[in-house]
Amino acid sequence: MPPFIPPLSDPSKTVPALASERSLVSFPVESLTQFLHGETLEPQRRIRALLEQDPVFSNADKPFLSREKMYVRSLEKAAKLVEMKKRNGWGEEDMMLAMRMLGDSTPQFLHEALFIPTLKTQLSDEQQKIWLPKAENYEIFGCYAQTELAHGSNLRKLETTATFIPETDEFEINTPTINSMKWWPGALAQSSTHCAIYARLILHGKDYGVHPFLLQIRAPGTHAPMAGIELGNLGNKIGFNTIDNGFLRVHNVRIPRSQMMMRNSKVTREGKYEPAKNAKMNYSTMVAIRANIVRNAGFALGQALTIAIRYSMVRLQGGDRIPSQKGEEVKIIDHGMQRFRLTTSLALSYAMLMTGRVMFEMHRRNLKNVIQGEVGLMAEVHATSSGLKALTSDLATAHMEDARRACGGHGYSWCGGIVDILTTTLQDVTVEGENTILHLQTSRWLLKTILAALKTKDLSAVPAGLRPALQDANVLEQERATIVPGQPVSGETLVAAFWHREARVLQEVVTRILKDGAGEEAMAKSQVRMVELSRTHGEGMLVRNFFEALAKEEQTILSKGQDPAKGYLPVLKQLAELHAIHRLLEQAGDFTEDGYVSRRQVVWLRERRDELVDGLRYEIIGLVDAYDLSDNQLNSAIGRYDGRVYESLYEWAKYGMSIMEKGSQGGVLGFDEVLKDVLAEGRRINGVVVTPKL
């Protein structure tokens, strides 16, 4: 049966409730869309239009598919993308955009986003000439095999080995124990022919730590596992079930020495080891994925909020107890708590989008440097991406779940759309490093930077907002927030508040660590507060990056001779203020503990937050429409652009019934097999005789 394709939204047939909401937006939505997407807007719309002309890319039947059929459908999409890539001459950026436009995940994403970048950053120029064309033309299909059954985030303890055999100029790859088998890599179980496998380099009996190698795992033609290779599928997961996450055991498999990835570290024919300039260069792919998670968190949350906010403007409920409503039901967005929870989440989504831009640009600069052998940015990018990945994935999934709950019963249905978005995104809190461990990595980098600066008296490597507290330990006691009642709170005031909070937590942690000896044992004793330090660092970045992005955009608008007071910028400034105030109030104790923010100011901030939420009431539909998400990307009966919620739910349910498996006698599944006998026994006990109708 071909994929189920519900009628796409026709803007001219938008339900009146949603049409009236859009008519009240104060800014041109298209202009905001251009600001959010920049130079990628035109190509992503062009590519999306091509995709949505082909029924293979419809996502609408996904709620009704088994895991096995989801996987096959994802391969069909991947195959079609490869065909379109070749036909249209798409480059790397086009292909990544196409996969973002799918509204679904395919094993191809692991090949394009992990395997190929690993080849680019880890293979030498000579090796790339051999392997990159094979990967880019899909002669081979690859995945990233790092995590093991017993070790994930602790990369230094990975157990897979690659032992050099000097007699044959080969490495022998082994997963020597059950614990050491590769476990979890996406696209490993069934899709991939090759993998970038991370293993301990053993030379002449000496362990040189973990390094990347290229390993063929399936035979060409038959796709059967190679000799010495055992592969399997890990089965159902919370989400992401279009991807074949798997396990890999390797038994004495030999590969040529040339299949050690030697851009950074090298092993000569004689078995001599030449180390990389920086050991972290071997993990540049992992850092890249963390940076992408930060960028994508805002959009994933934006998808969920687009659904929830559109639905909240169509769904009517309550109002009978409000005299002014005269017994009429009201839009659920006009219930104060609904409006509050969705608007504050929307502000967070935009803050994450702005920070995602900064993080991705930092990653791109670092990637360029790594390819050229420069590692100056690596430590900062690694630390920043770790903490932000942890913070944004935690916040995004928590607020997506709240958006799902805000949709009531229809939010519980997979056809509501948020369930699939949420369960797919939930992997991000664990993938590429469990979040608590990543927070510790970030705070460890911060502390080492600070301790080194205190020792040398050179503060140039210290974030600017933390320097005053290091120069004068008493400055924090003297600082107070400049917040007054009945007025907007400036970006400068809010940014200063988050710097103050971070500096105070940092000062506390540094003092404790120095007291305990300043070594690893001292840091281990302070883990709880170190995680809090990383979170304060990340939240400060979210606040600063939002305001800085708007300041930069204001200058761009002025340079074009336009008035920044007109258009979307005033609305975004309110959204940035709301985000910062809400984050502050969510952890008010951190800001009031030392008197920086007074109890009276907390009351004023609550009043200002409520004022901002109410002031944005008729802007939020424009703010979510600006994400530029198609119906197919959202794959939601309740988040359609035209607001035809109930017709869509009915069509989806009818389709589900039409493909439901029939019972053994052609009736309802389960009746002839089970219920018939149960009901018959009940009637027999009660003396009821049922005569079948002819």
UniProtKB/TrEMBL annotation:
FAD binds at residues 147, 186. Residues 29-141 form the Acyl-coenzyme A oxidase N-terminal domain. The active site is at 432 (proton acceptor). Pfam families: ACOX, ACOX_C_alpha1, Acyl-CoA_ox_N. One of its GO terms (molecular function) is fatty acid binding. Its cofactor is FAD. It is found in: Peroxisome. GO terms for cellular component: peroxisome. Residues 283-447 form the Acyl-CoA oxidase C-alpha1 domain. Its main location: other. Residues 492-655 form the Acyl-CoA oxidase C-terminal domain. The keyword Lipid metabolism applies. GO terms for biological process: fatty acid beta-oxidation using acyl-CoA oxidase; lipid homeostasis. Belongs to the acyl-CoA oxidase family. This is Acyl-coenzyme A oxidase. It comes from Linnemannia schmuckeri. The gene is ACOX1.
